[in-house]
């Protein structure tokens, strides 16, 4: 066998091996569908499908329908389906829904960034766990995902991909108002305008007075939600001496990320981020006892502080821990923003916090 032929054969075998390896990877990941809304802006899906191909009669995963969607937090997977797809990513979102605060229906067919979605799913994510036998932290690969459609008043749709370690936005779309939806097929009482109005009245009667006033005055804050998606050069930081094991940050745009600092050299990834809504930290107190703290931020006060900063400037989101903090205390974590011109104290944006013991890791 001559040398040239050997090289060609080796190349072909490598291509075959890589192709088989990728195929095996693709078969491992699987996902279901979900939908969410901004809090107190309920919606209901009339018809919704995440289609697995852009060809006619494509297979699909159905979106949650015949239920009222009113998420506590943007990005929640509370309203989800049991249907799952394995080794295939969605290509098209076809959806029609009712925005109850507007008494309007919206429809849209959107081509999805399937490459970006697959990139988030195919490699899975490392999930740490406490190995009881070895008494050490170990990891396993998790390939479970959820594709979640955020439905906003005004017809905006934001598509998220959830994994146990992060929630990531993969697309934003605009649906059109649809006055031809036959809601009588979903609920007999909604077969005419009078019936639809009665259902809308029931769905909105227990909303907070602020939302009722918006409905009555026609002042639903459509532009407000766009502000949630503004990103900053934000770098969360903790001190090595605070012995932080993990940090999870939820953002006001519905995204979140979990970083296992004890397995990651105490470093957060460098990237743009939205404004934090909540942080959860696992750390060690002065006696090396494992502790966990939750810190919640006021969304509007946080936005007001960030809006004072210059566009595109680097921001260090510094998390300081008083390691003398005891369980059930509602202080002990402080936050400040460090920028080129100085520091901004974030204490006025803290809504609440609490610390407690966490004897079992993760």
Structural account:
By secondary structure, this protein is an alpha+beta fold. The protein is built from six helices and 23 strands. The chain has helices at 3-28, 114-122, 193-204, 209-217, 222-228, 299-307, and strands at residues 30-36, 43-51, 60-62, 68-69, 79-80, 85-86, 92-99, 104-111, 125-131, 136-142, 144-151, 156-163, 166-174, 176-177, 233-237, 246-251, 256-259, 276-284, 290-297, 314-321, 333-339, 342-345, 350-357. Strands 1, 5, 6, 11, 12, 13, 16, 17, 18, 19 and 23 form an eleven-stranded mixed sheet that branches. Strands 2, 3, 4, 7, 8 and 14 form a six-stranded antiparallel sheet that branches.
Round the mean pLDDT to the nearest integer and report it: 89
Report helical residue fraction. Answer: 10-25%
Structural class by secondary-structure content: alpha+beta
- Radius of gyration equals 24 Å
Total DSSP helices = 6
Order of helices and strands: HEEEEEEEEHEEEEEEHHHEEEEEHEEEE
N/C terminus separation: 56 Å
Quaternary status of these chains? single chain
Number of β-strand runs:
23
**Principal-axis shape:** globular
Q: How would you sum up the major sheet?
A: 11 strands, mixed
Q: In percent terms, what proportion of residues is strand?
A: 35-45%
Task: Outline the low-pLDDT stretches.
Answer: 3-26
Structure in a nutshell:
With 362 residues, the chain is of the alpha+beta class.
